[in-house]
Amino acid sequence: xxxxxxxxxxxxxxxxxxxxxxxxxxxxxxxxxxxxxxxxxxxxxxxxxxxxxxxxxxxxxxxxxxxxxxxxxxxxxxxxxxxxxxxxxxxxxxxxxxxxxxxxxxxxxxxxxxxxxxxxxxxxxxxxxxxxxxxxxxxxxxxxxxxxxxxxxxxxxxxxxxxxxxxxxxxxxxxxxxxxxxxxxxxxxxxxxxxxxxxxxxxxxxxxxxxxxxxxxxxxxxxxxxxxxxxxxxxxxxxxxxxxxxxxxxxxxxxxxxxxxxxxxxxxxxxxxxxxxxxxxxxxxxxxxxxxxxxxxxxxxxxxxxxxxxxxxxxxxxxxxxx
Amino acid sequence: xxxxxxxxxxxxxxxxxxxxxxxxxxxxxxxxxxxxxxxxxxxxxxxxxxxxxxxxxxxxxxxxxxxxxxxxxxxxxxxxxxxxxxxxxxxxxxxxxxxxxxxxxxxxxxxxxxxxxxxxxxxxxxxxxxxxxxxxxxxxxxxxxxxxxxxxxxxxxxxxxxxxxxxxxxxxxxxxxxxxxxxxxxxxxxxxxxxxxxxxxxxxxxxxxxxxxxxxxxxxxxxxxxxxxxxxxxxxxxxxxxxxxxxxxxxxxxx
Lengths: 323, 255
Ligand SMILES: Cc1cc2nc3c(=O)[nH]c(=O)nc-3n(C[C@H](O)[C@H](O)[C@H](O)COP(=O)(O)OP(=O)(O)OC[C@H]3O[C@@H](n4cnc5c(N)ncnc54)[C@H](O)[C@@H]3O)c2cc1C
Ligand SMILES: Nc1ncnc2c1ncn2[C@@H]1O[C@H](COP(=O)(O)O)[C@@H](O)[C@H]1O
Prior knowledge:
The structure holds 2 protein chains of 2 kinds.
Chain A: E1 2-7, E2 9-10, E3 13-14, H1 16-32, E4 35-41, H2 49-54, E5 59-63, H3 73-87, E6 91-95, H4 98-111, E7 115-123, E8 128-134, E9 139-145, E10 150-154, E11 171-175, E12 188-193, E13 205-209, H5 219-228, E14 232-235, H6 237-241, E15 262-266, H7 272-278, E16 283-288, H8 294-298, E17 301-304, H9 307-322
Parallel strand pairs in A: 1-4, 1-6, 4-5, 5-11, 6-10, 7-10, 13-14, 13-15, 15-16, 16-17
Antiparallel strand pairs in A: 2-3, 7-8, 8-9
Helix pairs in contact in A: 3-4, 5-9
Chain B: E1 2-6, E2 10-12, E3 32-34, H1 37-53, E4 56-63, H2 68-76, E5 81-86, H3 94-112, E6 117-121, H4 132-139, E7 144-154, E8 157-164, E9 167-174, E10 177-181, H5 193-201, E11 204-206, E12 216-222, E13 232-236, H6 241-251
Parallel strand pairs in B: 1-4, 1-6, 4-5, 5-11, 6-10, 7-10
Antiparallel strand pairs in B: 2-3, 7-8, 8-9
Helix pairs in contact in B: 2-5, 3-4
Bound molecules: flavin-adenine dinucleotide and adenosine monophosphate.
């Protein structure tokens, strides 16, 4: 009996999310008294074998096929389903990334089993019990899972990826799935790179603007401050809905999750759907005319006042000190 | 061009989400309701495609009778047909929901012809199961890709773009197809006065569907433990600037 953990890699380097899944998975497999096995799909995975073993994969299933040279949700879902069937695995998991959740939904649909997405904690047993996130992390749900084969994903960042105390054997088994024309319908055909360098998700400083900024032009002041701090501008949904900024700037449940050293949130009320995208910031400075705003209450630091006066004053003070 | 969009009625919480005393649901006593931004964009995308190709947009939801409000909103921004699967429980689990939607879609297609495109949100705003659209697509034996932020239609193929780190990947999906839409694919229009008036008179066809419950069962909802921190007020108005820059220096973000 085994737990299969889907791992994703880029030319042999495993992504952080997959190592989180393995870290979570080996602990879960230990509690469930089953083996923890990794699944890697596509060519070039050999380079990842050591890392997989170090993180606790007792066995590594390398799945290869002409249709698996690039990502495809149906091809990957079908492959993982066939592997579950052929190994007799009793559980299958991945990290709750876009891909992880997508592939597992395909697996669950094919196996006709439930799929519990984005768990933070799982207790195995006859019936598994778990805690999972709702509302993008604003709410938690305790739930039970009664299934022949358990299909679950672990919330991204719920655990920190750590190597196992003792590396596992990590013996390799090759697997060639039987893929038909259906699997070819949804394979990546092309890839376009738009930006390189710091992005909203990775920037150490984010200057965010909300409805309080008042207009598209009003963001020039925020751009100036972000520029002075080597950061980027973010915004709330009220702003994208008004067409003042592109959606790629939106922070929140249906936007980007940020984790900067400091988030300066100007003219943003702090609705729960915005907050879940911002709460991983190490420090938050709210600038708001309303001292009672939720953003002010939740932030570590605040300035009460009109952002159109406060933001340029900060930029000027930085310039003054730099001489 | 026949397009179907599946939307879900969800509460619209403000600064925090409260749970009912029994822990089974979000306390909606003082809340309005909405659909997920992903689904709002899916409706907008469907309406734009219909405008371009002389198509027809049907919007389908499974929910309480009040979900009629979300269907009418879709009509006010251009959807043509509205279908409600009424339920009395708070929520159906994802397997049960997908099974009921599949049955309803098959019934609509049997009566009125197949849909060229079926759009879902990437995930529902509240329960976030990340699966209903994929389950329905699998049951209908149609291709499906989630996370779509751009669609171009050419001769029976939907070229669909999906965001990845710093760029996007492109899929060429044969139609009829199912796509999971993400906010940002478009900027949804606001309803016009005319649209609003017309939507009041729009017909909502209700169709009861039964489906078996799935293996995931809610025990209770609760809020994550919040780090309560005192807010340090650095000052009022532009005079606070030196204190702010002191802080930035202290945090080491001012290199
Ligand atoms: C399912 C769902 C998902 C959502 N996802 C997101 C998401 O991803 N991201 C997101 O941001 N929202 C999201 N929302 C919307 C969210 O609920 C709020 O509507 C939105 O965040 C409000 O934006 P805001 O704070 O800019 O505007 P408001 O709530 O209108 O706040 C404006 C603030 O600006 C202050 N202000 C006004 N003038 C000034 C001034 N001159 N100087 C300083 N302060 C001033 C006001 O005091 C107020 O606090 C979502 C909603 C739903 C239902
Ligand atoms: N009750 C429902 N009625 C109609 N569509 C739904 C319902 N629940 C979920 N969906 C659709 O399925 C998508 C994915 O939902 P979920 O699997 O719950 O994250 C949503 O964005 C909706 O488009």
